Amino acid sequence: MMVAGQLWGMGTGDATKRRNRSGSAGRWRFLHPAAVDLAAIRAALCGHDHSQRLQALVALRHHSTADAEPILLTALESDTFIIRSFACMGLGQKRTEAGFHALLERARQDKDPNVRAEAASALSWFGFERCTSLLLQLFSQDDHWLVRHSILAALSECGDPGVQLQVARQGLGGNDDTVRCSALELLGVLVGSPLEGEAETLLLAASHDDNPWMIRRTAARTLGNFPGEAARRRCLELRQDPDHRVVAASLESALKLDSGPQSEFSN
Q1: Name one Pfam family in it (predicted).
Q2: Domain encompassing residue 130
Q3: How confident is the model at residue 220 (pLDDT cuts 50, 70, 90)?
Q4: Helices assigned H by DSSP within the chain
């Protein structure tokens, strides 16, 4: 997911490292994506070199939506999961009605969780008014950790505290500790909202010894965003946690609390 996002311009740049090549493959490597015409893109996508196929999909960002959409929709039928993932990213960038329905189908039915996660993330670019309920449905129906992590990340930006608390509760109710940690981190955005107290209560419960160390550590870190006395007191108590990683997180949070946490809800 990160590689696709970076190559489509959603990250910090092209983070992939490619092999040196000779011949036409080598020349492709040095072409600026804007210089790759549609005929070359179609030819590359019909080939067997995965690197060229991915670069062809990335080059579509410099072409019009009308030109890019049919190529991306075709790539979405590829038998290679990473090609389908990049196609999802592209369809999210171009945002067409056909692309929306294709992404929703992939998010619901693709056999690979990487593709389902990428499709869910791309759906969020169509606007939360349209996609929030769909993302919540996908979260309830798909218990793969990667898909759920992607949806939690997307909804962290939706600006609706009720939705964020709802999906965080669902994530905490699952069995995957990676998802539970993501849900705890999401609770941090509720500082300064009307639901701050409920979020803090969930974090305090997660910080106790009957939870795995990674859950306690994430709770300790996130509590550093909450300005209340209960959070401060719990961070002090966690300095006695049997796991040194939790202790380190509690010390980090104590420093944040001393410097005064900031909230996106407070101005």
Answers
A1: HEAT_2
A2: 1-9+30-157
A3: very high
A4: 2-7, 23-29, 38-45, 50-59, 65-75, 81-94, 97-109, 113-123, 128-141, 145-155, 161-172, 177-187, 196-206, 213-223, 229-237, 244-259
